Fold this sequence. Notes:
Blueprint lengths: L10 H6 L6 H14 L4 E5 L2 E5 L3 E7 L4 E5 L22 E5 L8 H15 L19 H8 L2 H9 L2 H12 L4 H16 L12
Antiparallel strand pairs: 1-2, 2-3, 3-4, 4-5
Helix pairs in contact: 5-7, 6-7
Pfam family, one: DUF1801
Amino acid sequence: MDCRPSRTQDPNEWIATCPEGSRAVCEELRDLFFRWEPDLQESINSNMLCFNRHKRVVGLSGLKSHAQITFYRGGDLPDPGRLFNHGLENATIRSIDLPQGLEGLNQRALKALLHAAVELDAQPSLPKPPRPPREEWPMPSVLEEALQKNKAAAAFFEQLKPTYQREYKVWVSTAKQPETIAKRLNETIRALAAGKKWAQRKEAC
């Protein structure tokens, strides 16, 4: 998804000034979108050619080496053809990178995806899907070993909510130099033993 300032607000000029590596594909996709959903309206946003009804439904990015299709509510759409291959971790916006152009693209599946996106756009009052939960941050081995040696620190750490545990785990594990690791580890154990959350750790020094 291209977040640069738009080079133009004119869709025809946008197509004409796409990089050579994506211009023909973007032009063909534009024709397909209007053939499949003739009531769509065009606009330019964040240097993308967008196709709208109530809100933005789908957008095209013309990149140097390839084109990209972005569905603004892709996380809500059925994708039996498994076209989405970019932004799969996002709850809403998902994209299709086309490094090979339209060669090998399942156009029937893309057409169905576009129809579903337009139908979904007709229901703008639907609530946004919940954000996917963050993956648990792995426990640094040095912190785990230190907690095993300090019962008070370990007990307070265990009663902390996962969000507060994460702060300590991230802080310790993102240190790179041995002296930095040792310093943060010592501060962590001292703060935990004193019953302090990460934001309060300085109070235990």
